Amino acid sequence: MDSAAALRETILDKLHSGAWRPGHRLPTERALSEQFGLSRSTVRRALAELKRLQLITQTVGSGTYVAAQASAALGALQQHGTAVATSPAELMAARLALEPAIIEMVIGNATALDFQRMDECNVQAEAATTLEDFEHWDGALHEAIADAAHNRLVADVFRLMNQVRALGTWGVLKRRSATPERRLSYQREHRALVAALRQRDAEHARALCRAHLMHVRTNLLGA
Length: 223
Prior knowledge:
Layout: H1 3-17, H2 29-36, H3 40-52, E1 56-59, E2 63-66, H4 70-78, H5 82-85, H6 88-98, H7 103-109, H8 112-127, H9 131-147, H10 152-165, H11 168-177, H12 180-198, H13 202-221
Antiparallel strand pairs: 1-2
């Protein structure tokens, strides 16, 4: 398990065990950064994900606290325990089946704001100075594309897939396969895919989406 995953699992263990109850104040970002050997930006991302899951709340100038609804949120999270048992190969197979399949919905429903969000993900990914940051914005782009379908079930499925990407096994494979050349290729592929979606070219967008995912699968798994 990598350090970012260890941070997430430590917090979840504290919540599950009841050691941290609603209203409990979490250690500061700086303390967590030092404890787990992570950058402050990585700690902030991990906390942001837990906040999105309604496990914690954050107040500017005060700190980070266990949310009042943390117990209910933990119950909902346990329903998605499938993520923990999903292998990278299973995830890539699911992505290859699902991501090209929603292209028609995205093209039919995407708004100007959706495309602005995709563009922002690309800008942030290209500006990322660490693999962790790039991977975060890579996942955010694919989630933004799924959200542009404006279908709640599709959005939930893609968020579950991003939970799998947040696990340690995926991170280890990413680090092993990452090279500057591959990252540049991914960035070009992302830009081309968003351009095809914006042009409402379903056939081209599907082909680009599938080619990109095949490229990722080959780099990660060698097949």
